[in-house]
From TrEMBL:
Gene3D superfamilies: 3.30.420.40. Keywords: Kinase, Transferase. One of its GO terms (molecular function) is kinase activity. Residues 268-457 form the Carbohydrate kinase FGGY C-terminal domain. Pfam families: FGGY_C (PF02782), FGGY_N (PF00370). InterPro entries: ATPase_NBD (IPR043129), Carb_kinase_FGGY (IPR000577), FGGY_C (IPR018485), FGGY_Carb_Kinase (IPR050406), FGGY_N (IPR018484). Belongs to the FGGY kinase family. This is Carbohydrate kinase. Residues 4-256 form the Carbohydrate kinase FGGY N-terminal domain. GO terms for biological process: carbohydrate metabolic process.
Length: 519
């Protein structure tokens, strides 16, 4: 009997579902886009039931595909999924969402973040590795729901992330059964003990979050239930198929790109551009206030990592293609843009793009997106290259932090959608003065999920040895000394502009937006 595994990645821009066989060969993949809503300045909302519906539709298509290949849905040994680590919604007794799904793109908690940070408490750093609150932390979203959501105040039972929500509904679980895996739990930013893998009573009390609202903690490969008859009918999967506990998208992307040992760097080039480095635990030099680095636990035991991010890194690329170029239905246009941008000199003719389309980090959440230095000589290709380089400038700052703390970053792996762009990879190599490596495996987090499903089903004894079989280098990019020197010089100017000289302009532009669209 064939052994197949189904994995999904519930990301910000889309949900992807894939089926792999026991040799980790991809049999089929299906994907559908998600919808982001912006009801107020700084607010970004999604819908957990939309995530669920998209996943169901993609699973159904995958089942039709494997049947056409001669397989039976009963061949699926287990289902495993990952989702956004910094995002939650509230659910009721039935386990259904009663609030919008709010994630890391949202900055509505800015004022509350300032209040929590004004307390200047050491417990956050001691137990989580994160010295300060951030507007991207689910812990802050939970406080907002408790204060502002009448529905949650009246009906709320638990807070849930998007992947566990999907998995729980596939298994027909109720609100009281809500769960979260030990890695994605650290996506809360606060409220837990990262080393003990448990919720922190003291932190939750300070935050004013009753522990009864917190989901139970599981391992990613734990079987939390089995596919319900209702979901079997809707998905085409066989009733009784084991459902795993799930994991965080960043955690699975890191494993899928070969990062499961301390000291390795990974660029997760997704919607939220994230630059991660694995460690053996908390590094005091990196857990400093003002660095805006986040510390998390990995999916595997005794794995940890820091990451810095640009909220709209990958989303800025999609925004430029869809909204500026009006090519929303042309996925190939990314390639066309990069082919033309490759002819533009490094530095984009002096054009700088500020990529903060949903606000900046917490020290200046009023930042916004803009192009600087445009002239009549500049065109779409110049602007595209400046968008790509803008992510690299923020990565340079993060990379400087890591290296100052003694982390060797001579070799960086790239993963997720943006990793397929050779121009962007070469730009990153030049800007970060590091060799950039891309693997042939294009599955990223999804293939890792399928490997975890195989482990949960008892079909493989160890995860890493099986993963190493498919980690074959696809392309390598070496830094060019003259380009690295040029980017370093421009970075000094860019950093001064954004961090110092433009602060007043950002504040005034935000004031204009509030006048035009008050809350």
């Amino acid at each position: 009997m064939p052994k197949l595994y189904l994995g999904f990645d519930a990301g910000t821009q889309s949900v992807k579902v894939s089926v792999y066989d026991e040799n980790l060969n991809n049999l089929t993949s299906q994907s559908l886009p998600t919808i982001l809503r912006y009801p107020n300045p700084g607010w970004v909302e999604m819908d957990l039931d939309e995530f669920l519906d998209i996943t169901i539709r993609c699973i159904k298509r995958c089942m039709e595909d494997i049947k056409a290949l001669g397989y039976d849905p009963k061949d699926i040994r287990a289902v495993m999924g990952d989702g956004i680590i910094c995002g939650i919604a509230g659910v009721n007794e039935e386990g259904d969402a009663i609030t919008p799904y709010v994630n890391y793109l949202d900055t509505r908690t800015e004022e509350d973040v300032r209040y929590i940070n004004s307390l200047d408490l050491d417990i956050w750093n001691k137990e989580t590795g994160n010295p300060q609150a951030s507007t991207m932390f689910p812990a802050m979203f939970a406080r907002w729901f408790l204060k502002n959501s009448t529905k949650f105040q009246q009906q709320g039972v638990k807070f849930m992330h998007n992947a566990p929500y999907i998995l729980a509904h596939l298994a027909g679980l109720k609100g009281k059964d809500a769960f979260i895996d030990w890695g994605a739990m650290s996506g809360w930013g606060m409220g837990y003990n990262v080393m003990k893998k448990e919720w922190s009573d003291e932190q939750l009390e300070i935050l004013g979050i009753d522990k009864r609202y917190m989901p139970r903690i599981v391992k990613p490969w734990d079987i939390i239930g089995h596919l319900s008859p209702e979901m079997a009918e809707r998905t085409g999967l066989a009733a009784g198929t084991p459902i795993c506990g799930g994991a965080g998208d960043t955690m699975q992307s890191m494993i899928g790109s070969g990062n499961y040992e301390a000291g390795k760097g990974v660029d997760v080039a997704g919607t939220c551009a994230m630059f991660c480095v694995s460690t053996k635990g908390i590094i005091p030099e990196l857990s400093q206030k003002g660095m805006n680095l986040i510390f998390n636990s990995g999916s595997l035991p005794d794995t940890y990592f820091y990451w810095g991010m640009i909220r709209t890194g990958g989303l800025a690329l999609r925004w430029f293609k869809d909204s500026v170029c009006h090519k929303a239905n042309d996925a190939v246009y990314y390639t066309d843009l990069s082919e033309r941008a490759a002819k533009v000199p490094a530095g984009s003719n002096g054009v700088l793009f500020v990529p903060y389309l949903t606000g900046g980090q917490d020290e200046n959440a009023k930042k916004c997106g803009c192009f600087l230095g445009l002239t009549l000589e500049d065109d779409q290709a110049v602007m595209w290259r400046s968008v790509l380089e803008s992510i690299g400038y923020d990565y340079m700052e993060i990379c400087d932090y890591y290296r100052a703390a003694g982390v060797n970053l001579d070799r960086i792996t790239v993963t997720e959608g943006g990793s397929r762009d050779s121009l962007w990879n070469q730009i990153k190599s030049d800007m970060l003065d590091a060799e950039v490596v891309r693997y042939k495996n294009k599955g990223g987090a999804v293939v890792t999920n399928c490997l975890f499903a195989a482990y949960a089903a008892g079909d493989v004894k160890e995860i890493i040895p099986e993963l190493e079989k498919i980690l074959v280098v696809d392309e390598e990019y070496a830094p060019r000394e003259e380009k690295t020197k040029l980017y370093r010089e421009v970075y000094g100017v860019q950093k001064k502009l954004i961090k110092e000289e433009m602060n007043e302009a950002f504040a005034e532009l935000w004031r204009v937006k509030k006048i035009l669209k008050p809350e």
